Every structure is written in structure tokens, then in C-alpha cells.
Amino acid sequence: MKKLVAIVVLALSLSACNAGSKEHVCTFEDQSRGLKSKLVHTHSGDVVKGFKETIVFSYEQYGISEEHKEAFQQQIKETFNPLYGETNVTYQDEKDTLTVIVSIVYDKETIKKLQESGVVTAGNISHISLKESIKELEANGYNCGK
Predict the structure, then answer these.
(1) What is the topology classification, in CATH, of domain 21-139?
(2) 6-7-10 Cα angle (round to 5)
(3) End-to-end CA, the chain
(4) Contact criterion met (CB below 8 Å) for 119 and 78
């Protein structure tokens, strides 16, 4: 019984973490390079709580032949893992595409690391601003519908 109560309390506390949170979606597509991205910010007001970005690379449009897929995948991993941390990035290799999924929940330490690396510049040391993030993304070609 104590175990069941502990599980219920844990579930309630986890769901409370996202209480009042909303999502805002931004997309990016570069057909000439075969790149698609969907970025979902989880936020409360102007404070971004985290994000999940799904990026799809087309091997054909990147000019990646079958024998060079592994080298391309390694190059992508060497780019994303140091920026976001290995535990925050997953990779899905399909026949024609490589999908990279970056999923981050912001805390002060994560914000500090991402700001130091230049990955995140919107907001300050204590939080990431949704409005500033959207402005930067749109300046870089993302479509962040209102």
C-alpha cells in the first residue's frame, strides 16, 4: 500500500510540473537541402520550460550515398551531442532520412551551459524568454505561427 501511495504522489508531482504549461510550435523547411524541423516549446507565459525539436535530414538531398551514411551520422552526432548532451539527443536512421530528436527541460544549469555554448541567447541566466526565442527563430527562417 505504501508503494502505491508513493507512486500516486510521484505521478501527481510530475503532472503538477506541467500544470499550466502550454506549447508553441515553430517549423523550418529548406527543400533545397532536404531539411525539415519542428520545434515545440513548452512554456508558461513568457518563460520557456523546455523544448523538443525533431530535425529530419534527407540523405538524397544532402548527397549522402549509402556508403557514406555512417560517416554523415557520426558527423551529426559529433555536432549535436556536445551542444545538447548525449542524454538529450536521440537518432533514428531510416532508409532515406536521419531524424534527430533533441529534448531539453530547462533548469538553471542547463540554461547556463546552453548560453555559454551560444546555443541559447534569448532570456537571461534564470529563464529563457519565449518571445525572444520566437524572434530569433523567425529571423533564422523558422515559421512560428502566432
Answers:
(1) YehR-like fold (3.30.1830)
(2) 85
(3) 47
(4) no
- Quickly tell me which residue has 500500500 as its cell: 1
pTM attached to this predicted model: 0.76
- Judged by DSSP in three states, 138 sits in helix
Q: Which tens digit of pLDDT belongs to each residue from 28-53?
A: 999 888 899 999 999 998 888 889 99
Domain boundaries, the chain: 21-139
Residues in the chain: 146
Place of cell 503532472: 15
In three-state secondary structure terms, 14 is helix
Residues 110 and 88: their CA atoms lie apart, in Å, by 11
pLDDT in tens, 82-129: 888 888 999 999 999 999 999 988 877 777 777 777 766 666 666 778
Q: Name beta bridge partners: 79.
A: none
35-70 burial: b if 16+ Cβ within 10 Å, else e: ebbbbbbbbeeeebbbbbbbbbbbbeeeebeeeeee
